[in-house]
Write a structure and sequence with these properties.
The chain is mainly β. The protein contains no helices and 12 strands. Strands 1-2-3-4-5-6-7-8-9-10-11-12 form a 12-stranded antiparallel beta sheet, with no helix packed on it.
Length: about 180
């Protein structure tokens, strides 16, 4: 185990295969995991990113297909999985013209995912306002995610309107709470 900057212990291998450069039309990058563990929990599955062609510079976007499982059981003979599946679109919103300078890159994420907990409870996460991520920021800077599923009411997670900070707001029914994403 290697303890990382976020305090989590990791071991194993993350494999990335690709057939072209990230910004080449129809390039595919696939991430898989080989005996990969986070805090003793085994992560398996795939994340596939496909560059979709557009004829307008700056309208580059990527289809992202996620199918991951995290085994959270302390007993290797009795698996308990958290399953995350999704269809997302990643748009390269800023920084695509500056080449090797990545510090100015900004991406937006839209789409939906499903999370299934070990007890079978499912949650659907629909991005109602695109999530904005800048490579120079550790948190989502903007966007809204609607979470529905087991035990209503709907939850709304709001990352704000563009500031790089660790704050977000969650609405559960009529209750509103500010949350710090670093805790």
């Amino acid at each position: 185990d290697c303890e990382c900057l976020d305090g989590r212990k990791r071991r194993g291998t993350i494999l990335v295969s690709y057939n072209n450069q990230y910004n080449d039309t129809n390039s595919t990058h696939t991430i898989t995991f080989d005996n990969y563990y986070v805090n003793g929990n085994r992560l398996t599955g795939t994340i596939k990113t496909i560059r979709i062609d557009t004829t307008v510079l700056g309208n580059w976007y990527y289809k992202v297909l996620v199918n991951d499982s995290l085994d959270v059981s302390p007993d290797p003979l009795n698996s308990l999985y958290i399953i995350w599946q999704g269809n997302l679109v990643r748009k390269w919103a800023q920084g695509y013209t500056t080449g090797a300078t990545r510090a100015d890159d900004v991406f937006s994420i839209s789409g939906n995912t499903t999370l299934t907990r070990p007890n079978g409870h499912q949650f659907s996460c629909d991005i109602s306002a695109p999530l904005q991520f800048a490579l120079g920021c550790d948190f989502a800077q903007a966007g809204v995610v609607n979470v529905t599923g087991y035990n209503p009411p709907m939850r709304v997670l709001n990352y704000g309107s563009g500031t790089c900070d660790a704050m977000a707001q969650v609405n559960i029914g009529i209750n509103v709470a500010n949350i710090n994403l670093t805790k």
